[in-house]
Specification:
about 475 residues, single chain, Leucine Aminopeptidase, subunit E, domain 1, 14 helices, 2 domains, Aminopeptidase
Length: about 475
């Protein structure tokens, strides 16, 4: 999909499909001599959010199709605008048009500017137009739509063009994150993630490296190695560095992603029902890789380091047992009471490793707990942080991009539930609040750092027959990086 901008009056355009509000479409139809056709078609049209109507004007018309989008009369709320543009994106996907002009930036949205309206439109298109058909043997029809031009007048052209540039980069990162997440686990293992990450190294100012298990053992990463021990596929800690700024001495932002490419639960094995969904336990890794790709594509002036903790959690004769005690690279010891609480084990060593870069902030992203689904469902990612400013920056980025988060408590009151009889800390707690306790566990390995943890188990993929990786929260992270890049 190629996004661009276009200017001029709508009545002068040539396109397969014009996506516009009712009054705009009416003016274009009148100019093209199709006023009677338009009037008849919209006779029963309900001009409200979520309603669309496609009107075919004929192959000889400069505008072959009108996609009338309801709910954009007068000044509208952000929620109504979102509903309208999501409906428009869905209708455009099936409109059988090769090109389209998106004229919805001209809608009046309360408290929002043209950059936001254009960005939100591209986000709706990115979310809707994605498909993953790599393993279908039956012939699938490719998407007809090849290009979308966002219409802008002379006053809005600059912010709309900037939104298009960022939106194109966001699409690249989001599609990649979803592709990685949707790969089957017999393809997507730690080595596969490393090969994919190395592709980023072709871009200017990007280097990619990795720690193998031998190096991790030298560094004392006993928690990470406890997870990967049962697998035939060695674990990897992948490091992607993007130097997008020439400002000397600037502390980097570090993103850390949980990359459990398949999670059986280990010796604490999961029930068979829905275990196939555990191929998505690497969506934290996919997300930070996607956000990194977006930052690189957009050439953000920022210093960014991305760490992917990639491993399989498998049962075998070598696998870690419940009751084992391991030493982390921080020096702290962990009693592993449940081998299915493995994400926090790979992350704690990755977070300790992140500290060596003297970062200005560290953000980890993980499908960490089923408990967060009970708390928040699929609408918001859980945000934990030891830094109020960082937490607010992430929440603001989520609200702006439509990839929302909700702040959760990280109080010392919860820490006592992680007490171990034999080690410094247990990897699971007691008394409920499973997502909070997982975050509390990680907080013990980020002392002295500005840190946030995003639990995305509810937002990374929907449950049910129509599931698939959503790419969330790529948009939140990318917006955060844009804001931080100044």
């Amino acid at each position: 999909m190629k996004y661009s901008t276009t200017t001029g009056t709508l009545t002068e355009l040539k396109t397969d499909c014009l996506v516009a509000a009712k009054d705009q479409c009416e003016r274009v139809a009148a100019e093209l001599g199709s006023e009677a056709l338009f009037s008849a078609a919209v006779l029963d049209f309900e001009d409200k959010p979520g309603v669309t109507l496609q009107i075919n004007l004929g192959t000889k018309s400069a505008v072959r199709k009108l996609l009338v989008v309801g709910g954009l009369k007068g000044t509208v709320t952000t929620s109504d605008y979102d509903k309208s543009i999501k409906a428009a994106a869905g209708a455009l996907k099936t409109a059988k048009a090769r090109s389209a002009v998106w004229a919805l930036v001209s809608a009046r949205v309360k408290d929002q500017d043209n950059y936001w309206k254009a960005s939100r439109g591209i986000t709706a298109l990115n979310d809707t137009l994605y498909s993953f058909d790599a393993y279908r043997t039956a012939e699938t029809k490719p998407l007809s739509l090849k290009s979308v031009a966002l219409h802008a007048d002379s006053r809005s052209r600059s912010p709309v063009a900037r939104a298009v540039r960022h939106g194109q980069a966001a699409k690249a990162g989001l599609d990649w994150a979803r592709d990685l997440g949707n790969q089957p686990p017999n393809v997507c293992n730690p080595s596969y993630l490393l090969r994919e990450a190395r592709k980023l190294g072709r871009a200017p100012n990007v280097t990619v490296s990795a720690l193998d298990e031998k190096k991790m053992e030298e560094l004392g990463m006993g928690a990470f190695l406890a997870v990967t021990r049962g697998s035939e596929t060695p674990g990897k800690m992948i490091i992607i560095r993007y130097r997008g700024t020439r400002r000397a001495g600037e502390a980097p932002i570090v993103l850390v992603g949980k990359g459990i490419t398949f999670d059986t639960g280990g010796i604490s094995i999961k029930p068979a029902a829905n275990m196939h969904e555990m191929k998505w336990d690497m969506c934290g890794a996919a997300t930070v890789m996607g956000a990194t790709k977006a930052a690189i594509e957009a050439r953000l002036p920022i210093d960014l380091i991305t760490i992917v903790a990639a491993a399989e959690n498998m049962p075998s004769g070598r696998a870690t047992r419940p009751g084992d005690i391991v030493k982390t690279s921080s020096g702290k010891t962990v009693e592993i009471l449940n081998t299915d609480a493995e994400g926090r084990l790979v992350l704690c060593d990755a977070l300790t490793y992140a500290a060596r870069y003297k970062p200005r902030t560290v953000i980890d992203v993980a499908t960490l707990t089923g408990a967060v689904i009970v708390a928040l469902g699929a609408h918001a990612s859980a945000v934990y942080a030891n830094d109020d400013d960082l937490a607010q920056a992430l929440l603001d980025a989520g609200e702006y991009s439509g990839d929302r988060g909700w702040r959760m408590p990280l109080w010392d009151d919860y820490q006592a539930a992680l007490k171990s009889q034999f080690a410094d800390v247990a990897n699971i707690g007691t008394g409920g609040a499973g997502s909070v306790l997982a975050a509390c566990f990680l907080s013990r390995f980020v002392e002295g750092l500005s840190w946030a943890h995003l639990d995305i188990a509810g937002t990374a993929f929907p449950r049910g027959p129509q599931n698939g990786a959503t790419g969330r929260p790529v948009n939140m992270l990318f917006r955060y990086l844009i804001n931080q890049s100044g």
